[in-house]
Specification:
about 220 residues; alpha+beta; 5-stranded antiparallel beta sheet; two-stranded antiparallel sheet; about 25% helix
């Protein structure tokens, strides 16, 4: 197990469900990969959405940059310099700084991703150990990185590559030092060992969501 220390802090697994049996509200947490198959269990659905706002900064020959966040019911979860933030829906899209010139009011687009058994608080508890304050990096670990992992944990769908294409190109250029040479970007040493795909693999081992089909957006 590549994440023994972090795993111990996760608390309830993602298949922790609120259930109703014979009219009584109870709680079930355990190693059931498909608890909905147990007779008498009625999972409470949580509606998951992806909010997207273009940042308005474009460069010749490069794709547009986007700010994304995840909504679970009426709460938004987003990632920034202070770590994971929980706020009323789409709050992070209403004060996004554009190149130091002003603020946008968003989101511009909202996509329905499906239904999950995981609540906003459970998602926060699961991902906070990996998205802590001071670990944000403009290229290697940003809001889109968090949205990708959160979407996968909630509904088994990855963030569409088009919303993170700019940083994908930047990461490739960073290998040769081009990004630092051409911009004021400075890598965050607190996330130098962060590997997004490794975290996705780790989360995959713990997922107990219902099988869903990734929506086209």
């Amino acid at each position: 197990d590549a994440w023994p220390q972090e795993r111990a802090t996760l608390g309830h697994p993602p298949w922790h469900l609120h259930i109703r049996v014979m009219g009584c509200a109870e709680s079930l947490a355990g190693g059931f990969k498909r608890p909905e198959l147990l007779c008498g269990i009625e999972p409470i659905p949580h509606f998951v959405r992806l909010a997207v706002t273009p940042l308005g900064q474009t460069y010749a020959g490069l794709p547009e940059a986007y700010h994304t966040s995840i909504s679970v019911d009426d709460l938004e979860l987003s990632f920034g310099a202070l770590g994971v933030r929980i706020a009323p829906n789409f709050a992070s899209h209403k004060n996004t700084l554009i190149g130091g010139m002003g603020f946008i009011v968003g989101p511009e687009m909202v996509f329905d991703l499906g239904v999950s058994s995981v609540s906003a608080m459970q998602l926060s508890q699961a991902l906070r150990p990996y998205f802590q304050s001071g670990t944000y990096d403009l290229i290697r670990k940003n809001c889109n990185t968090f949205s990708d992992c959160a979407s996968w944990y909630l509904v088994g769908a990855r963030l569409d590559n088009k919303f993170a294409r700019l940083e994908t190109i930047a990461r490739a250029a960073e290998v040769f030092g081009l990004v630092q040479h051409l911009s004021c970007y400075s890598p965050n040493p607190n996330c130098v060992n962060f590997q997004q795909d490794d975290l996705i693999d780790h989360l995959s081992k713990m997922i107990g969501h219902y099988p869903v089909v990734q929506l086209a957006y």
